[in-house]
Structures are given as structure tokens and as C-alpha cells.
Amino acid sequence: MTKKTWKPKETYRAIILIQDGVGDRPVPELGGHTPLEIARKPHMDTIAELGATGLMDLIEPGVRPGTDTGHLALFGYDPYKYYPGRGPLEAAGIGVPLRPGDVALRCNIATVEERNGELIVVDRRAGRIRGDHVKILVDALNKTIKEVDGVKVEFYPATEHRVVMVLRGEGLSPRISDSDPGTAMEGHPVKKVVPLDDTLEAKKTAEIVNKVIRLAHEVLRDHPLNKERVEKGLLPGNAIITRGAGMVPRDLKPFEEVFKAKAYVVAEEATIIGIARILGMGAEIPPGSTATLDTDLDSILEAALKAWREGYDIIYIHVKGPDIAGHDADPYGKIRIIERTDEMLGKLMKEIEWKKTVIALAADHSTPCLVRDHSGDPVPVAIYAPTIRRDHVRKYDEYSCSKGILGRIRGVELIKIVLDQMNKPLKWGA
Predict the structure, then answer these.
(1) What is the C-alpha separation between 1 and 171, in angstroms, rounded?
(2) Residues 157-168: tens digit of each pLDDT
(3) What is the mean pLDDT of residues 309-315?
(4) I need a surface site. Which of 159, 321, 362, 366 has the fewest CB within 10 A?
(5) DSSP bridge pairs for 315
(6) CA-CA distance, 315 to 378, in Å (whole number)?
(7) What is the pTM for the complete model shown?
(8) Whether residue 6 has pLDDT greater than 80
(9) Closest listed residue to residue 15, CA positions, set 270, 307, 340
(10) What residues contact residue 148 under an 8 Å CB cut-off, 6+ apart?
(11) Are 279 and 255 in contact (CB under 8 A)?
(12) Could you tell me how many helices (H) and strands (E) the chain has, helices first?
């Protein structure tokens, strides 16, 4: 008998397509079906038919994920342990270099009036100040407020009236309250920042932020630009108000170090780009991607193909439109963007050797049209791989995938399954 010669196992690369908020509940206008059930999506159905399917709880059953925590899980990091807060995500999304231990806060340039020793908020956005005016005021802050109580302070202009503040030093904590009184709360004072736990680190950080807020007002109230704005009938940007303090976890390790694979993220939202950058992943928002139903999917496709040609092991592709349709209670819009995304997937499959590629279909959360918000419903997942155990499911939707061989998994488990099908598994034990 001739002895069979075994070839070395082949390794594969992977595409993970994330349709933001695609999961849904029965819609009366659709005869009690979901948009995924109604949409014509031959390429997604092919992945389901030739692969393994199931349902996925991004965090755990019944917990409503945000886009940020949902994607953190899809990247393989437990949100309960590694979620850094919105401040660091906003910072990383605009390219601010963050280090483990840095505290980042989201800020608004605002208009305040001094009354009886308090700063009263007149307009939380300083008349929606933007552009060069924000940059000029941020430059003034950086020139004057460099350090408070031994902690370095840095400011960075973000979108429109928004600014990021970074605190860098020892003994800091993100466990502090917001100074921003909130939407529609003009006429109320800037809140005193207080520690949210009993640690010395939280107390120290709260005191520093309160001092920075006072110093910032002293710098901005007499700034020549603000005098010019008042003369023109515009509101002055004479204060900062803070919210969303967060810290990059000190034990957070880069994606490539943890999973031994290089990943690239093509996304339509700065929050996702921020997460990717914190994790050391390549990332971009392609030109023409609007994060709405009219987004340029060809531009998204080209960015993904460029990353593919550059040799990345795993490419995440994010399409925002289904979530927008869910928030707008627009099931027909959701169907259309699903169908357009399926066409993009078909073009992608033609450009790569897809039968020698691991392709996963997933979502970061459900956004049911009847709820008009994120829900805790699990999302359908389908994974094709050249040697995967196929099940008997033939369609990619919430009900079909519930019958699949994968069962019900958590978000952090998806990347491990994908890596195993790539023949690049994380091995435990001898």
C-alpha cells in the first residue's frame, strides 16, 4: 500500500464584513420579517450556505452594545476589561498619540458668564465655533497651560467646537465626573468635577481638571479673537467644559502582539478608527464614505482592496448605513443598504481568491427599526473558510443563522474562530 504524503497545512487571510446595526426584529410593514430576511443578498447567502453560521452576543445576552464596545469585542478585547471610555477614542480618532495611563477627556469650547463666582453656561458650543477660530484658541491654551500639579496638559482641536484634552503623568484616574451640564442645560453653571470613587488618584485628577477649567477661562476670556467675535455679534469661546474622561488601560497590548496577525480597519466612523489606532491596527475612513445610506461603497471597497494588496492578514470592513436606517425606523432603507453592501461583497469576492480566504459576516449590535436604538438582540454571524465544517443553513439572516453549527457565541470569540480557520490559532498547552 502506498503511503500517503501529507502536505503542510495552508494558512489563509481573512475578511470580516461588519454591517453596523444590521440585526433587527420582526417589522409589521415587512409582513413580520426582518430586513435581512427580505433583502436580496446572494453573496451573503453564499457565505452562509458554504460556511458555518450562528448567533453572536457582542457583550453578553441582553446587554445593549455601543458601536465602540461592539467593535472592541469584534477586535477580540473584552469591553468590560478594556473599554477606555469615549475620551481616548475621540483622541485616537483624530490622531492624538496616547500612552497607557494617559487620561483623555472630550471638551467643548463654550460660552460662559461669570456670576457670583460661578461660570454660567450661555452656549455649550460657543455658537458652534469651528475651524481656525478653534485652532487659535487651542494654541493659546497650549502656550499657557502646560502643566498643573506636576501633570502635563495638552489640548487638540477635534470636530467643529470639540476639543480633546490629555492629562499625562503619574497617579491619575478616569473615575471623575463631567463638568458639562449637558444638552439643553444652558443657564446652568459649569459643574464641579468630583471623584467617582474614594481613591487618591480620582481625587487628584478631579482637582486638576477643575483647576484647568478655571485657568482656561482666564486665558480665553480676554483673548483678542474673542473680543473680535463679540464685536461681530458672535459668541466668544471663553471656556472649556469637559466630559467622557477615560484612560488607555495600562495592560492593553496591541492587536498584532496578542493575535500574531496584522489587521487593517476600513471604517466609516471616527470612534472605530480610534479603537483601531489604540490597538495599533492600520485604519482609515475612505474618501466619500458618508456613514449614511448614500455612502460611496466603491470607495470603501477600494480601500479594502488596497489593504489586501499590501498583505494584511485580516481586513475589517465597516458599513454604517444599516444602523442609520434602524435609528430612522426605515426598514426599506435598511433593505437597500444591505443589498448595496451585498453587491460590494460580490465585487470583493471577484477581486480576491475568495475560496482560499476566510470571510466572516458580522455586526456590532442590532438596531431594530421598531426600537430606533441599539438593542440586546444577538446578531447573525456566518463564516466561510476552505475547510470549515459546514452546516445546513442556506441564508444569512437572524432566524436562519439561529439554526447554525456555531450556536451562540460572544463577540470576543469571533476573532479566535477566524484565526483558527486561517490556521493561525492561539494554542493553549503543549
Answers:
(1) 71
(2) 988 899 999 999
(3) 98
(4) 159
(5) 15, 264
(6) 23
(7) 0.85
(8) no
(9) 307
(10) 208, 211, 212, 215
(11) yes
(12) 15, 14
Residue owning grid cell 487659535: 136
Residue 336 has pLDDT above 90, yes or no: yes
Q: In what order do the strands lie in the sheet with 314-319?
A: 282-284, 263-266, 314-319, 13-19, 357-362, 379-384, 52-57, 407-410
Average pLDDT, the chain: 94
Instruction: Quote the CA–CA distance of 154 and 143 in Å, as a whole number.
Output: 10
Pair type for strands 379-384 and 357-362: antiparallel
Residues in the chain, overall count: 430
- H or E stretch at 154: strand 151-157
Which string of DSSP letters, residue by residue, matches 255-321?
HHHHHSS-EEEE-S-HHHHHHHHHTT-EEE--TT--SSTT--HHHHHHHHHHHHHTT-SEEEEEE-H
Domains and CATH numbers, the chain: 13-83+252-421 (3.40.720.10), 90-247 (no CATH)
Task: Please say if the pLDDT value at position 428 is more than 60.
Answer: yes
Distance CA 373, CA 157 (A): 30
225-267 pLDDT, tens per residue?
999 999 999 999 999 999 999 998 888 899 999 999 999 999 9
Whose cell is 473584552? That residue is 78
| The Cα angle at residue 165 between residues 187 and 223, in degrees rounded to 5 | 60
